[in-house]
Queue: 3 jobs
Job 1
Amino acid sequence: MTVFSLTRLPALLLAGGLGLSMPLLAETLANPYRILTESELASQQVQIDLFWQKQVQQGSFKGGANIPLHYAYVIPPNAKASIVILNGRTESVLKYQEMYFELARQGYAVFSYDHRGQGLSGRLNPDPHLGHVEDFQDYVQDTGLFMAKFTDLMPGPKLLLAHSMGGAIASVYLGQAPTQFIAAAMSAPMHAPNAEVLFSEKDGCYLAAAVRWTCEDCYAGFVSQPYQAGSFVGNIYTQSEIRYRRFREQYQQQPKIQLGGPSWQWLSQACAIADDMPRIAKNIQTPVLILQAGKDAAVVPAPQDAFCQAIGSYCHGGKVVKLAGARHEFFIEADPYRIPALTAVLDFFQQKLSQSD
């Protein structure tokens, strides 16, 4: 496991360990890719909004069982490659507007869609706030349908960027389509959900296996419920107040994308796919970078290490990249965690693009 901590950054910078520089040490981590900082975000918001309105194409396509799935993509001039984003549970493409803006500035075309049952895609239950899926393979099938529909539009080599639940979907999909992407980066992948109910992370999985037969579309656990806009204080996702506030405001302005807790069936399926990860890993033939959050309370980090070891030489660097102190959502984290995370991803992608020339 490779660990990045803020106290080690000066040494890493001198040694070139992260490929980062720090021209404004007193203010923030520097960044060779000019990733937006928290202090810059507010002044750039109008530009991001205009970019999203004028350049990003949105629409709907049919997923498995004809479930309508919302998509968004942007193709900047002279794009050098295409990045496909598989987002996490409860998320929407709308939450990734800053990421689209930044990746497009780096010369990447960006493609993504909302998973079934969340975001602007079709719901699977009369309760629109219930996070539900009948079979985890439905997510994987939707990814295949998305790729079949949009591959011809994607310029250059294809790269995969997956977060949380999207990381679990990506893992299964990469095993089924081993040559479609030249590289994949996973942010806090859900190789095992944190299903803690009583004593351990696995307790919820055991309970889900028993309860789902009697109430598969009930909210799982004892605290799951419809969407609520929680406060920044005490949240387990990010230490960036501005980014946390922005995504909550967005969900407030777009009630359709709000999603609450998962169903027992969803939890049962997530646990089942976690149990199958050792077998899934044997089919991976794509170079994978795994980012692990040091303070992740949404997924269990240890199975990410096991997955890295299971895919062997395809795990970039032979170890997960752990950012000490980071919370689950790297892409809306505070600058000291988000900048190194995105720098590591962009360095990895650029290296693989250079090797593919």
Note: DSSP finds eleven helices and nine strands in the chain.
Job 2
Amino acid sequence: AACCDPQGVFDRFGNFFLVYLGLHYNADLDINEYNVYLAMSTDGGQTFPTITQLTTSGTNDQPSLAVGPSYLPGSDSIWVTYNNDDRIAARGALVSGLGSVGPFNPAQEAPGTRGSFGNIAIGPAGQVLVTYQDGGDHANIGPSRIFVNLDPDGLQSDTTAFGAQITVAVTQVGSFRLIPAQSNDYGIDAEANLAWDYSSGSHKGRVYLVYTDAANELTNDTDIMLRYSDDSGATWSAPLRVNDD
């Protein structure tokens, strides 16, 4: 049964991809198990005849997906990232046309600190960048670090996986920080997200990262911050505040 955390995206061929968590009750262990599923539609979301199960461990959470270029001319790629028992993992596949998706590569984990609340983006040459945050010393409040890992050639080689963990920022918004507007058991997190610039302009190849921050661990006045990188995530700019309050 579909459970939670859905995300959808169209590719340039007209495929609509929907990633979500599926719920299964394991009666033998008396626990709920969560796996990542990817549904594909070729008619704008009217029907989803193809559903692919991407994980089997049952300890998965917070999937995210991206479409973009690949190393192969005429083909694009789709990538899905997810939390697998507090490790960020990702799988990708080539897309060659409407309804034409190749097999997904084996799952690869981003090395480094355990983390969650991941996101993923595909670069103009098919490279793949994942981002996520750790729990920090005060997992429910903050501070928390935001990381990225780069796979420099994406689907071109299964032997070239994600590289070393890079710290982008320290945020005062932890994994489950309660604020008046979100005062239930979950609260908010930094919710880092990535976007790559495919344009022909002066910033072609620049990758952006947006996240939530605050002046300290106690204030409820949170801000949306933006950083950018011109070297595929190796180094990052100083933060720019997006909101103007």
Note: The two ends are 42 Å apart (CA to CA).
Job 3
Amino acid sequence: MSYRSLFKKCLIGSFAVALCLFQAACGGSSDNGSTPNKDIIQNAGSDTMVNLAQAWAESYAGVAPTVSVEVSGGGSGTGVAALINGTVDIANTSRQMKPEELERAKQNTGQQPIEFIVGFDALAVYVHKDNPLEEITIAQLADIYGEKGTLDKWSALGIDHKACESGEIIRISRQSNSGTYHYFRETLLGDTQDFKLGSRDLHGSKDVVELVERTPCAIGYSGMGYMTEHVKALRVAVKSGDTAYPPTLETSLNKTYPIARPLYIYSLGEPTGATKTYLDWVMSAEGQKIVEDNGYVPVQKDAEPENEATGD
């Protein structure tokens, strides 16, 4: 090798070393831009609440740029399991944690889950937009979904559903790890029955509405926040002869709509630090405005009891 080539090679190598030292001094690295000293709040759970939780997280990034709220769905059961295992800071659920789940969380982590009611949701009953049906009762829904139910044709509800050629009622439901599934089943059937087999069980709230939109014969249930112009939300009455009410903010607040429920966040033990500050913000006027903007019912502090620790 000539002296000139050797000198050139050494010069290039020296430049590369100098560049690396410069990048290191200026903070350059291969960590994909991760920010040091940033508080991360892990949040998982209810698919019903996932859009709301993401909206909270995005808005809070502007309020507290040194805090990152990382949101994932998967269903209320997924969030509860993560809380029990201590892998999340907070869990979103559209049902209350069961006594045995509370006990398992305390045994596994040494901390008692704390319950917060962060909003309310009317669980809408959706049909295809061309379905002539306008209202339904809880008893009729139980007869459609329940294991002892015999109502399987639209004509049995006194309508001529021309868009559904088979006349068959196609039941759209949620998977059994969903808080929406458990709440809807208990509202219709109590603790004595289960749903009949043969429904199309979907993972997500949005998926239910989209399948009803594409399926003229379908009926399904999902949060009112997922309503679109391509489906119809039925008015619901408790029993025949009662007034049927639509799922709205007003009917949820005055408790005339019969399938309305609280939405919960559970923390692992009394929240502290960044988690407490975040939950305080969620319950603030700004956080509750986001609840309403996403189609849910904000907590009315003058009408609802204070959030309390769930008892041992």
Note: The first helix runs from residue 3 to 25.
